[in-house]
């Protein structure tokens, strides 16, 4: 089967490995769709084309299975990194979102550097950073010095690592997490009072919170709550 053997020519060392995988998957599926439409249009060719379609479906299924197996094998051999971004509560806070198709309110702060490959240790560190900040939003202990100790780095290292992946200072990163978490609480209608939302994300002054929120999202939290 020519289609099955095609999966074997993926260059797993290439930086464009994911594009190659997508290309291998796209072409057989595109052919299946084309043949399906053809069969419905030209009924006199139905038997012959149905047989051909069945063969393509079977070959493509085997090809996709081979591709998936090779992906898992390559990942285990550390040839490529598979990043699961939906573990982050707020993925738009990180620079790799700049390369995605989905727009973000933070696009203006992103650099255009290639962040498509992130070492697993760094990814794990960033996940722990976000989780640590979220878990202590209401606590008075949340500070740069405390966070550096929790993340087991110096304050200087903390600054460098956060800036590298977000383009933000640690203080601005914490502030962004507070505001994005506040927006999520408003979207979920968890609280019906802006003061409660502000307190929940660790900002004691409701007026200051509303000012920050409006600057970040373009309208007051009370207006956002009504729209939600």
From TrEMBL:
Residues 127-227 form the HTH araC/xylS-type domain. InterPro entries: Homeodomain-like_sf, HTH_AraC. PROSITE patterns: HTH_ARAC_FAMILY_2. Transmembrane segments: none annotated. Signal peptide: none annotated. GO terms for molecular function: DNA-binding transcription factor activity; sequence-specific DNA binding. Keywords: DNA-binding, Transcription, Transcription regulation. It comes from the Bacteria. This is Transcriptional regulator, AraC family. It comes from Haliscomenobacter hydrossis (strain ATCC 27775 / DSM 1100 / LMG 10767 / O).
